[in-house]
Amino acid sequence: MPRFERIPRENWPRAREMRKRPTAAERVLWKALRGKQVGTRFLRQHPIGPYIADFFSFDRRLVLEVDGDSHADPLQEGYDERRSEYFASQGIQVRRYSNRDVLSNLDGVLKDVLEAVDANRTAE
């Protein structure tokens, strides 16, 4: 199993601050994920190597990202692609959801999350 790169020291307090100020969509999704409600434990705003994942299940090697409108910007798209490539190089699957999807179609998002959790359970 690949080992994570060293986590930059500044990412720990930054992640803590991000947990204190979640977006509305992150707050809604966290309420649905916390406490193993989807069959695995997720951590929120968790540093992984040089990045901070919105939600991370260590057991299932699964990252969930909740993206706002800024992620449609070409520069941001390139950054997101590099993040996803890094996570994949660490054996971590990434699922991305828009704020809009989380806020207007939470059931559909959770169905997709459950499928990813189940798929990663059988890969153990």
Judged by helices, strands and strand pairing, the structural class is: alpha+beta
**Extended strand count:** 4
What is the string of helix and strand elements?
A: HHEEEHEHH
Strand order of the largest sheet: 1-2-3-4
**Which geometry do the CA atoms define?**
globular
As for the number of domains, it is 1
Cα distance spanning the termini: 12 Å
Task: Tell me the β content.
Answer: 15-25%
Kindly report the average pLDDT value. Answer: 89
Q: How many whole angstroms does the radius of gyration measure? A: 14 Å
CATH superfamily: VSR Endonuclease
> Which range best describes the helical content: under 10%, 10-25%, 25-40%, 40-55%, 55-70% or over 70%?
40-55%
Report low-confidence residues grouped into runs of 5 or more.
none
> At the first level of CATH, what is the class?
Alpha Beta
Number of helices: 5
CATH topology call: Endonuclease, Chain A
**CATH architecture tag:** 3-Layer(aba) Sandwich
Report the major sheet.
Answer: 4 strands, mixed
Descriptive account of the structure:
The chain has 124 residues and is of the alpha+beta class. It has a single domain, classed as VSR Endonuclease (Endonuclease, Chain A, 3-Layer(aba) Sandwich), CATH 3.40.960. Helix content is 48%, strand content 20%. The protein has helices at residues 11-20, 24-33, 74-89, 99-104, 106-122; strands at 43-48, 51-57, 62-67, 93-98. Strand 1 and strand 2 form a beta hairpin. The longest helix has 17 residues, at 106-122. The protein is globular.
